[in-house]
């Protein structure tokens, strides 16, 4: 084991699991490949987007080089989906035991072994690392370079002094957590989603700044694991990108869990009188409020990784907030360079990075004309209850001048939800007025992330809401609520004239 190398990669503690992770995604003894005379594709960044581009292009016979300066697997494996969902699983289990009395099950006090929770998290991450490992991609025929990439000129990229020549290149460097410019915040050395999974001891009091998906998920998880949690939201409710009703339900559940939510507030100043004690000042319509916390977790903002890439040398334009500027074909302002994933997308999700990478493979290698705007990207926030969304919301449709009709079903009226005591939430499906064409949907409830795909399939296939009513769902399931929305639409087709005609036909 090499503890210093593991810590240098930002992996703490330097235990066996983190060592196995480091050995897979940034091995210290990785031999530098002999560069090919000319690559069909050089991919800079080995997060989800870069990995998908490299594996897909190599599988099609292209000569590919993949460059990564830090950890292969990017956010998803190392600081995002995998560790966060492992933590959430533990928090959900603790909550399930506490609420078992609702179902008539008597339990004793719940004891959370936080060190064991985090040890399992690290073990799970290490076990999955082989999928994104340098060795695996070498076996796929990809030349993997671990180092800092810099574009020298069109057709050439330098990696720590080695020049890679290419026909096309892809920028897939992702994004990183950013800190708001608040006096005293940086000096407090706050946690972000990139460092919070290094914890080995449960924080006594955690202040979470930002009530988007990451902030809400981690605030609820740490509260259920035993921390006192204060969540600061800049708006009137959590999850500002989702339907207001969804944010209201999540706010109620967070409150029931014991999370202290401060809405319509912004962090204005941090004082740290001693290690492990931070005094936070937040301002809002009601004035300045002050509270103390042992740790601060900032979950408010990300910055695209475009620095030190030499993009000016190849004419690739960037924006501080939007990252690399691309057209609908994911081509940059240099026609031989494409971009994919968080470095250029508005929707910063693993699955969005995946499918943007597929577009890049077709457009970069085969002169394809695939468009990013054609992607219908769902997303899910894994709070309890989950919040899943696809397509347009009512507000987004109204902003575009689209007239809509909403069909909804509350889980309080769904049999499976009542038997499982999981009645919070709803299914809401938005259609274009006068038709059954589905424009979008929001699902709030248990397993909403699993259910939203049914709506995504219907939208991709051009299946209207009326036809969903004819899809037989097992009884009882939560997903029956989707079919019931279809039934509600079909009832609107039974106009007074149609009822008169059917009644006359029956009398005959």
Brief summary of the model shown:
Helix content is 33%, strand content 23%. The chain is globular.
Question: Explain this structure to me?
Answer:
This protein has three domains: 34-72 and 133-178 and 301-375, FAD/NAD(P)-binding domain, CATH 3.50.50; 186-300, FAD/NAD(P)-binding domain (3-Layer(bba) Sandwich); 385-492, FAD/NAD-linked reductase, C-terminal dimerisation domain (Enolase-like, domain 1, 2-Layer Sandwich). The chain is of the alpha/beta class. The protein has helices at residues 3-8, 16-25, 48-59, 74-78, 81-98, 114-128, 134-139, 213-225, 244-257, 350-366, 394-399, 415-419, 448-461, 465-468, 480-492, 496-507, and strands spanning 39-44, 64-68, 143-146, 149-153, 156-159, 162-171, 175-177, 205-209, 228-232, 260-262, 266-274, 277-284, 287-293, 295-298, 302-304, 318-319, 323-324, 337-339, 379-381, 386-391, 404-410, 426-432, 438-445. The termini are far apart. The radius of gyration is 25 Å and the shape is globular. The longest helix has 18 residues, at 81-98. The protein has 16 helices and 23 strands.
């Amino acid at each position: 084991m090499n503890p210093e190398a593991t810590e240098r990669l930002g992996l703490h503690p330097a235990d066996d699991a983190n060592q196995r992770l480091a050995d897979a995604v940034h091995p210290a003894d990785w031999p530098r490949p002999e560069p090919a005379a000319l690559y069909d594709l050089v991919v800079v960044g080995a997060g989800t987007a870069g990995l998908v581009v490299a594996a897909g292009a190599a599988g099609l016979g292209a000569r590919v080089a993949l460059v990564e300066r830090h950890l292969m697997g990017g956010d998803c494996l190392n600081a995002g989906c995998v560790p966060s969902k492992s933590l959430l699983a533990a928090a959900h289990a603790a909550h399930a035991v506490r609420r078992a009395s609702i179902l008539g099950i008597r339990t004793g006090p719940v004891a959370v072994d936080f060190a064991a929770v985090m040890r399992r998290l690290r073990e799970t991450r290490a076990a999955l690392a082989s999928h994104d490992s340098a060795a695996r991609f070498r076996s796929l025929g990809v030349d993997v370079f671990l180092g800092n990439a810099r574009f020298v000129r069109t057709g050439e990229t330098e990696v720590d002094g080695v020049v890679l020549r290419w026909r096309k290149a892809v920028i897939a460097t992702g994004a990183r957590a950013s800190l708001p410019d608040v006096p005293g915040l940086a000096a407090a050395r706050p946690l972000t989603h990139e460092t919070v999974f290094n914890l080995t001891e449960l924080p006594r009091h955690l202040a979470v700044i930002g009530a988007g998906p990451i902030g809400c998920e981690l605030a609820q998880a740490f509260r259920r694991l035993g921390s006192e949690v204060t969540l600061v939201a800049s708006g009137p409710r959590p999850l500002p990108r989702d339907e207001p009703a969804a944010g209201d339900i999540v706010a109620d559940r967070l409150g029931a869990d014991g999370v202290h939510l401060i809405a319509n507030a912004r962090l204005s100043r941090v004082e740290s009188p001693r290690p492990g004690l931070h005094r936070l000042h937040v301002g809002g319509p009601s004035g300045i409020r002050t509270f103390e916390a042992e740790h601060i977790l900032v979950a408010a903002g990300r910055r695209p990784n475009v620095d030190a890439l030499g993009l000016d040398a190849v004419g690739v334009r960037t924006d501080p907030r939007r990252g690399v500027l691309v057209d609908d074909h994911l081509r940059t302002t240099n026609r031989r360079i494409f971009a994919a994933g968080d470095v250029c997308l508005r929707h910063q999700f693993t699955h969005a990075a995946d499918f943007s990478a597929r577009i890049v493979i077709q457009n970069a290698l085969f002169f394809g004309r695939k468009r990013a705007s054609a992607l219908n990207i769902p997303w899910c926030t894994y709070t309890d209850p989950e919040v899943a969304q696809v397509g347009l919301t009512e507000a987004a449709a109204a902003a575009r001048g689209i007239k809509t009709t909403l069909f909804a079903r509350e889980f309080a009226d769904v049999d499976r939800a009542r038997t499982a005591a999981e009645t919070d939430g709803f299914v809401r499906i938005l259609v274009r007025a006068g038709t059954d064409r589905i424009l979008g949907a929001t699902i709030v409830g248990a397993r909403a992330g699993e259910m939203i795909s049914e709506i995504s399939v219907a939208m991709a296939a051009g299946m209207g809401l009326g036809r969903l009513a004819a899809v037989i769902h097992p009884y009882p399931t939560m997903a029956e609520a989707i079919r019931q929305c279809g039934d509600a639409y079909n009832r609107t087709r039974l106009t007074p004239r149609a009822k008169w005609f059917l009644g006359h036909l029956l009398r005959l």
